[in-house]
């Protein structure tokens, strides 16, 4: 039994250490086909080589969320196997497109530790980097999780809490090399609305809904080699339910947001995110968005738009928190990201 | 909310207009692998590059129904989002194989309009063409749907009903370039029966059945980027059920027909089709076929066979309509197509 | 109806005959992506081209169990459509890696026949070989099944029972050309344990569990073009349940065994196997292993390890048979195989 991975506990982390996560993964067109089977993904730049070429890219990259899920999945056995809660994301940036045939691996640096006052758990902050086969970073983000202590007598580490800006500055976003939206085909993309048509504060109800099934979320989560027991094993939680991987909700909501944001093509920044309530099979996921900010970029015809993406399991759109400041019970996800859009 | 697609209503169509549908799609071997996972597809020409080469093709094309589903799926947001019923197909022809790596897009010309006497709905006839990245047509078919009016006061258009022959003439079928069945390997194909072994009027019970699941039909439908709400959202229909995409039934029945029609390799014509009754998860799909016609072709060793393919959800085979001329309640599909078979 | 395949019955087999099975299949990266979606497969050599290159291979081969399932699936219509029980496996050897783009087909030689005393059934022994597009064998194994007689008056054949050694001799295992584990990266592989760290008799509880769904096992089974009715059709068994393909349990257990056996990279021998009890949707599959034997090989840094892999649907690990010598009711699979591991 000593040979199986029991996961790390709070006392097993040291600020400054770097963890090289296991099981590199070569991703190709098969993973893209699966992504389009699991989510109603329709952003044209990720669907058609010719459309991507019309935007200055050599061909269609893999969906940005595939990169996120693969990189994230590798961290689970080392970071969140004994996690009580996934507390937040910050400072996420997509640094280079992932092309079919790339091999991804992940590394995480521990950048903060804070034991909780109960002495039983603590918060671990990691900065995770996804790298391709050329050792070039393709994605980085900060994530913090609450992790159990195994030995509650282990001494508390010095508290280190990293300073995390509320959002990635627009000037820090990395625009994929060659991207050019000056000849963008709005008809083939599916909607006529450009960067200039969106106003800060504007909200969009994405209208469509998808009722999720056990088989789907397990297959999606497995595809990213995410091994957290709670997603697969009905005996892992007291009520016998399988908790849906938060990333499944992210991808579903992002795909649903096509309807009203078809031209928010590339995700380049992850400012923050909260998995507000658990999602279970049988829930019908819906989504709405709010425009939080806009910025110009140096690339021809390319604007940046900062969006709040909210996934719900019912209820009216545009509701987020109650009078107590807490998320309403039917809110699943509150995500804050930057996307690139034709100007 | 103005930015989301509410779909077109009856009064939004004009005879003669051409709609360029959105979201082109590059399809590769991943889509083929998925097709073989979702359906019990075993026709050897679509399973093995070497078998296809033995039939004169450069390698194995994507299944003809993949081409149909991808082309059809793109039309949904513009043609059938507000459809009350899918009324029929006619004059369908596969014009060129779809190869892994091809990018497909769709266009539809409105060729007919007829307002119903109730003033609330009307029938829209479109001729849809699927095109590859070289702008070569790979598939065309006529489809007519009943669509709601949004503004019931909108004036009725002039009635235009296209003349639609009962079937594609055998002489109009397009045989893929190079196809040659003279060295056809019947053992590897799975059955010894050739074109000459089938007689007009002959009926075949395909014996096998598949009980369908929600996860499967949703993944299949999503794969083709078909966005119709009724397939995904349990709140879209009064009884909370998700209606299975008619094309899922077509592909399931075609795959089941391998058992008895293993050598009906390529689908080249779609003469007509009716989705006779709704299919829901839990139904067990079975299929039977009837030989309607036979014709020779100009390609070496290649014959054409016209088949009725009937999918049911139970009951005895070979039953289709009641004394009232209406489809029996357990009939799901009545499809009329041309396939190519070794002589 | 004469044209559909009713399957072979016991009296239809002759010792010495070779059956060429139908429907060759080209397998590529799409099939690999699906395998990683259907099973929690994480062995690094099958996940990353770069990792495989670090082990002396040109790139990452398809999982050994994909080869097994594809080769096995093709035999079903000719060998086990009328089987009452799958009795055993022996003398299985993987003879060459399967690379993306290979086309597989199967042949079986009938090597034994023994009518049962009841006169209604008999045991058929076949040696199945999987071949690639160069007609090179990639896999061979012996399997025996109990098959119904159609005509109980048909005379009993001479009894021929092949001699089947208990295990493949280590010296008969075929090591893939070029395989070299001297620069093996244990960190990227996920565990630090090498061949020398395992002792004969050692047992490992693989800890994780997966609750299986109907949609998943049907998709997996269909992917291998396995057509046995009992897996798909709720009307095929008296209780309305769909029996899960035994190979689905094999792949699930092998994938779960990563946790504790992450370095048992390549499966090269199949000594024996029993599907001890039926597996149904809703069961939670767990696995444990026992080290049965160890051997050196001629390849640099490569050791062979013989493992018993047991899949269960609950209960404590390490329990296998009752006092009566029969498998306990929660044991699903008892598999005996050889794998290659860094020394």
Automatic annotation (TrEMBL), chains A, B, C:
Matches recorded under InterPro entries: HotDog_dom_sf, MC_hydratase, MCH/BMMD, Thiol_ester_hydratase_Rv0216
Record GO terms (molecular function): lyase activity
Protein name as it appears in the record: Uncharacterized protein
Protein's organism: Sulfitobacter alexandrii
């Amino acid at each position: 039994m000593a040979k199986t991975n029991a996961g790390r506990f709070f006392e097993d982390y040291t600020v400054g250490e770097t963890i090289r996560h296991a099981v590199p993964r070569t991703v190709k067109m098969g993973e893209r086909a699966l992504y389009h089977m699991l989510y109603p993904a329709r952003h044209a730049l990720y669907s058609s080589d010719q459309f991507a070429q019309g935007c200055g890219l050599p061909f269609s990259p893999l969906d940005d969320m595939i990169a996120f899920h693969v990189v994230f999945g590798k961290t689970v056995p080392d970071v969140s196997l004994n996690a009580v809660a996934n507390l937040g994301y910050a400072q996420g940036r997509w640094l280079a497109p992932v092309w079919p045939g790339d091999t991804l691996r992940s590394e995480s640096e521990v950048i903060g530790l804070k034991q909780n006052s109960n002495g039983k758990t603590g918060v671990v902050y990691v900065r995770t980097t996804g790298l391709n086969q050329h050792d070039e970073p393709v994605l980085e983000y900060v994530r913090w999780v609450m992790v159990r202590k195994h030995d509650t007598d282990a001494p508390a580490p010095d508290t280190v809490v990293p300073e995390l800006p509320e959002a990635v500055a627009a000037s820090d976003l990395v625009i994929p090399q060659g991207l050019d939206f000056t000849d963008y085909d709005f008809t083939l993309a599916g909607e006529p609305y450009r960067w200039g048509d969106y106003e800060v504060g504007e909200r969009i109800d994405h209208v469509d809904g998808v009722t999720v099934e056990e088989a789907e979320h397990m297959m999606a989560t497995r595809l990213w080699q995410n091994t957290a027991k709670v997603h697969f094993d009905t005996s892992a939680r007291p009520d016998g339910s399988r908790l849906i991987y938060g990333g499944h909700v992210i991808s579903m909501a992002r795909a649903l947001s096509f309807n009203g944001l078809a031209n928010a093509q590339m995700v380049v920044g992850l400012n923050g995110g909260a998995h507000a309530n658990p999602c279970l099979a049988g829930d019908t996921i819906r989504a709405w968005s709010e425009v939080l900010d806009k910025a110009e970029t140096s690339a021809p015809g390319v604007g940046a738009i900062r969006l709040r993406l909210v996934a719900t399991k019912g209820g009216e759109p545009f509701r987020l928190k109650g009078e107590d400041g807490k998320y309403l019970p039917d809110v699943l996800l509150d995500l804050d990201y930057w996307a690139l859009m034709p100007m």
